[in-house]
C-alpha cells in the first residue's frame, strides 16, 4: 500500500511539474490565451474545408492508438470550430475511434491467444464479461458514463462476446455525449472569456449560453444515469432470500410479526405479503392447487425414467428375464476398487483425421462403477482449425469444461435459434439435452475439454454421419431437396408453410 501511495504521489508530482513547465514556457515565449486562440484559428484557415475531416481523422487515431492526447483534441475543437461544430466533430471522431478500437481489439484478442490469456488474468475483466452477459447494451451504456478512459472501455469490450451494432455502437453513440458536451463547453467558455478580455467584438451572449447549456446538460444526464444504474442493483434481501422453497424458512417468515406504522399495532404478515417479498412462498390456495397438480403429474414423472437404450420394446412373457433397461449389478463380494478407476482420459486421442479432433467417451461399458449413477464422461482434443461436427445426445445434457486453449461452441434450440460463445481456459458451457451442438478451435494452440453428461449411456447422433453414411435412396432424395433449400437461401418466408421449423 505504501509503495502504491508513493507511486501515486510521484505521478502527481510529475504531472504538476509538466503543467508548470508548460505554463512557464508559454509565459516566457508569449503563448498566452489570446495567442493560443489566434493560432488555432489560423490552423483552421490554413486547412480550409479539410479542417474538420482532418481533425476527425486525427482524433479518431488518438482514440484507437491510445496516446494521451484525447482531452486536448476535445478542448481544441471548441477553439478551432466553435461550440456546436466542435461538438459535432468530436462526436464523429469518438464514434469512429471507438469502432476502430473495437475491431482492432477483436482481431488482436481473437488471433493472439497470449493477449487473451493476459487479459483473462485481470480480475476486472471478469467483471466486464459478467456485466455484458447479464445486462448487454445497458452495461455498455453505463460504462460510457464511467470515469474510465474510452480506449480502455473499447478494447475491454472487444474481448467479450458483445455485439457490435446493438450492444456496442448504439450505447457508445448515446453515452459519449455528456463528456463531449462537458469538455467542449469548458474550453468554449474559456475561449469566450479570453475573447472578452482582449476586447474582441465576437464575445456575444451565445458564446456563453451554448457552453453553459452543455455543462448543465452533461450534469443532468450523468445524474439521471446514476439513478438508472442504482435501479439496476438487485436488492440485498432478494439476493439473500432462498429460492428453493425451504419450508422451515417459510414458516418462520409467516409467523414473524411486523409493525403497522400507521396504527402502532402489531400484525402478522399475510401470506400474500410474504409472496410479494419472497417469490418461493405460496399462499394456502396456491399450495392446495400445487398438491392437486403434483398428485396428477407425479406418477407420470416417476414412470418416465430416462431410457438407456435407443429403443426398448416390451419383451414377451417368456423373455422378460433376458434383458433390462441398463446393466445388471455385480455381486457385492466381487466389487473391486478398479471398477471405479479409468485411464482413458489421461491422454489425447488421434488428431490425424479430416476433422482434426478426437473424442474419448467413458460410459458404463468402459468404467463399470458408473452403472446406476447416471453419469458419463468425455475428453475432447481439437487441433487448430479443428472441429467437432454437429451432433446431439438424445439421453443427456452435457456440461463442458475447457482445460486448455480456446474454443467456439454453440447449440441450436427447437426454434432454430443459435446460442454461441467463445470460451477460454477454465470456462464452462452447458449443452441442453437432445439439442444439436458443435465445438470449433479457432485458436493457434491445441484445445482440450472435459465433459460430464447426466446419463451412463448418453448416446450420440451425428448429423453428418446420419445423413451421408445411410445407404438409402429415400435419404439421398431428401438430401437433394435439402441442398435445393441451401441454394435458395432459407428465410422465414420460405419456411412459413412448414408444419414446424427445421
DSSP strand content: 5-15%
Rg (C-alpha, Å): 33 Å
Please report the distance between the alpha carbons of the first and last residues. 60 Å
The strand line-up of the biggest sheet is 3-4-11-6-9
Measured as a percent range, the helix fraction is 40-55%
Q: What general outline do the C-alpha atoms trace? A: elongated
- Most strands sheet: 5 strands, antiparallel
Order of helices and strands: HHHHHHHHHHHHHHEEHHEEEEEEEEEEHH
Q: Tally the helices: what do you get?
A: 18
Structural class of the secondary elements?
alpha+beta
**Strands, total number:** 12
- Report the uncertain regions: 1-5, 200-206, 232-287, 292-304
Mean pLDDT: 68
Report on the architecture of this protein:
The protein is α+β, with helices and mostly antiparallel strands and 502 residues long. Helices cover 51% and strands 12% of the residues. The protein has a five-stranded antiparallel sheet with strand order 3-4-11-6-9, with no helix packed on it.
Keywords:
Cupin_1, disordered N terminus, VTT_dom, five-stranded antiparallel β-sheet, signal, alpha+beta, 51% helix, 502 residues, Jelly Rolls
Summarize it.
With 502 residues, this protein is an alpha+beta fold. It contains 18 helices and twelve strands.
Outline the fold blueprint.
Elements: H1 2-28, H2 33-47, H3 51-65, H4 70-81, H5 83-111, H6 113-120, H7 123-135, H8 137-144, H9 150-158, H10 165-175, H11 177-197, H12 206-232, H13 236-240, H14 247-255, E1 257-259, E2 266-268, H15 271-277, H16 284-303, E3 357-362, E4 376-382, E5 387-392, E6 398-404, E7 407-412, E8 418-423, E9 428-431, E10 437-440, E11 447-453, E12 461-462, H17 463-468, H18 473-488
Antiparallel strand pairs: 1-2, 3-4, 4-11, 5-10, 5-12, 6-9, 6-11, 7-8, 7-10
